[in-house]
Amino acid sequence: MVSDGHRSHIRRHRNHIRRHRNHIRRHRTSIFSSVSPSSSPLYSRCYPSLSVPANKPSLSPQPPPPLSPHFTLALPEGLCVVVRSSPSHSRVHHFVSSVHPDEYAVAVNAIPTNQKSSSNDDAELPEPTGQERNALSFLLGRTAMRHGIRQISRESLVVVPPILRDGHGRPALPSGYVGSISHKQTLAAALVDLDDDNFWKRDRVRGIGVDIERVMSKSGSALGRRVLTERERGALGNIPGVTELEEVLLRFSLKESLYKALHPLFETFIGFQEVEVQPCPDGTAEVEYYLKGGYQKDIVKTTTHWKRITEEVTGDESIGKKGVGKFEDFFLTSASVCLR
Known about the structure:
Layout: H1 4-34, H2 41-46, E1 71-75, E2 78-84, H3 101-109, H4 130-152, E3 177-184, E4 187-194, E5 206-214, H5 220-227, H6 230-234, H7 244-266, E6 275-279, E7 285-289, E8 299-312, E9 327-339
Antiparallel strand pairs: 1-2, 2-4, 3-4, 5-9, 6-7, 8-9
């Protein structure tokens, strides 16, 4: 049984609580009537979901969709995927959805802290620095390689692990694949092939390489003296549609592809004068080795191919320098080397 006195005590206690709540409500009203909610820290603490900043920031722009391949070629040495940067993929933060998070972290960490911007608004960003351009090249190459692995894999849904650098700076591909990457300003090419024969072997028996070069004849003369042998310089000018200076660049590109194919096999420096190449009009090339270590005795097969590709480009796709015309030429070369 509850006595009448106890009921009366409960009523008085409830009334006291009600008066206290009303007092708190009036006190809050007096505070926020003279202070803008946007500038009141108390308001923000009490009602964080309702606080309104003085200058409401614009929503951060969503990252663009993954960068798609520019084109894909099935070459004798493997599948080649070429990607090209665009206005929507011209800064490092544009690639957040195109590459693995670990690859993205490598690119971001390559940019010095004092050159990083806290803004993702492209209009507020300064021109890319040399370090950021290198980071962009890294991301372009990894984007191309990831597309290549997905296309060549026999699995319908392949999860591509991060493709970082090995101890020699080469792309560290997953087991069962062999590949190479080349990038030139706004272009990147990745060559990839299945490596089933070497899956369970410790020593690699096949290497492939790719190189992409924009056709710029002005530097051909100096380049020829540095990378071609005397016999190669004397054999220039026998490819229809390719000038002698352009052929110098073509031979340089073929040697770059060969070096990328050879280095994983021997892991030693190979100079330009240790290999001679003779490009043929049919898109193949003949190769002669003069390796100082005598490694050529272990090579049982070499294939090399080249293509000259001419594309129409817009102002947004050009490399951003004076003198870029409406059409753009580049050499795409590939090589494969197999050991006994």
